[in-house]
Write a structure and sequence with these properties.
Helices cover 26% and strands 25% of the residues. The strands form four sheets. The protein has a nine-stranded mixed beta sheet. A six-stranded mixed beta sheet has the order 2-1-3-4-5-17, sandwiched between helices. Strands 7-8 form a two-stranded antiparallel ribbon. Helix 8 links the parallel strand 12 and strand 13. Helix 6 runs parallel beside helix 8. The longest helix has 14 residues.
Length: 346
């Protein structure tokens, strides 16, 4: 696994828009303030050609333009790390225009983003053997004041903090809108991490998991399953001695969509050599349909793999989100409601 050099003090961050850009509010104001804050912290900032574009469908611009922008910014030497402008809907369509061979052959560079950006954070690991960070997009750095999760994301990008801890609560409903683009997270819900163990089901107590991290947003992952971009079995075989520690979360999928997605990935052979699962809070948190809830949707499919499953973690669309170093080795511990994740770049 290739690990990029960490962002140094005074380094420069680039902002490509392979999914949505920052063309409208509240995203534009948040992005502008993010650059201001990062500049004040001593970092240079370079918006990509599509950062403020809005002529695309489900993404900032045309698939060709977005793919070429991402490739060029990954290869350029004027930035040391990239943070995606935002998530979106159709980043999968840019993949045919990304030169993965060139990216794999160049010096590695950190790329951070989540949601639709799974299409790149995941493929950087499985196609290019390059680590990335599944973490907040650019506008998040424009909030005032920063939540500790935002500090953690920048610290991880700099290699200053390699052990992260769960947060006290989470946001169910955001207060940010066009008139209030810089508001911080609206933390109203108390965390409630859940542990599921083979033969025990949902249980209290302690758990320790380890392995090489791989995953992202299931909405995107199930779309990649079985395509020409699906090299997961090769990746799982290469790193089978480490075990694959999967982190997964969902955006638009309801509880049945989550169950179908996991069934699809499982039957595609993705979960061979899995050492455990880290499941983030889905946007459908608390939803139940026809007797199926978000927990049974996961355990009914993954339960027979005989590995522990942690659920409702700080990963994904219900912030705050813990930045996840995709491709890294990780040690994860849960003691009651105390969660700790330690990354190792090897």
């Amino acid at each position: 696994m290739r690990f990029p050099a960490f962002l140094k003090e005074g380094g420069t961050i680039g902002f490509p828009a392979p999914s949505f850009g920052c063309a409208s509010e509240p995203y534009r104001s948040a992005f502008l303030n993010a650059q201001k804050i990062l500049n004040e912290k001593g970092f240079g900032t370079v918006p990509g050609p599509n950062a403020y574009a809005g002529d695309g469908i489900g993404i900032s611009s045309s698939p060709c333009s977005c793919g070429e922008e991402l490739t060029q910014m990954m290869l350029a030497d004027d930035t040391q790390a990239l943070i995606s402008c935002g998530g979106g809907e159709l980043m999968c369509e840019i993949l045919d225009h990304v030169d993965f061979d060139a990216v794999a052959g160049a010096a590695p560079k950190w790329f951070m983003g989540y949601s639709d950006n799974t299409n790149f954070t995941f493929l950087l690991a499985t196609l290019c053997d390059t680590a990335s960070i599944y973490g907040p997009c650019a506008g998040t750095f424009g909030m005032e004041p920063w939540h500790p999760a935002v500090e953690d994301a920048l610290d991880l990008l700099q290699g200053k903090k390699m052990t992260l801890h769960g947060y006290d609560g989470y946001e169910k409903e955001s207060l940010k809108d066009e008139e209030h683009p810089l508001l911080p997270y609206n933390i109203t819900q108390k965390r409630q991490f859940r542990l599921w163990r083979p033969r025990e089901g949902c249980a209290e107590g302690e758990a320790r998991l380890s392995g090489r991290l791989l995953g992202g947003c299931m909405d995107c992952l199930v779309n990649l399953t079985g395509t020409g971009y699906d090299r997961v079995s090769r990746f799982a075989e290469k790193y089978k001695e480490d075990g694959i520690l999967w982190f997964l979360e969902a955006c638009d999928l309801n509880v049945f969509g989550i169950r179908r997605a996991l069934w699809n990935m499982k039957h595609a052979g993705w979960f061979e050599n899995a050492s455990g699962f880290l499941i983030g809070r889905p946007l459908c948190m608390g939803e139940e349909m026809m007797g199926l809830d978000q927990y049974d949707a996961v355990t009914a499919v993954l339960g027979d793999l005989g590995v522990p499953i942690l659920m409702d973690l700080d990963i994904g669309h219900l912030p705050p989100m813990m930045p996840v170093m995709t491709g890294a080795l990780a040690e994860v511990s849960l003691q009651g409601q105390e969660l700790a994740v330690t990354y190792e770049c090897k």
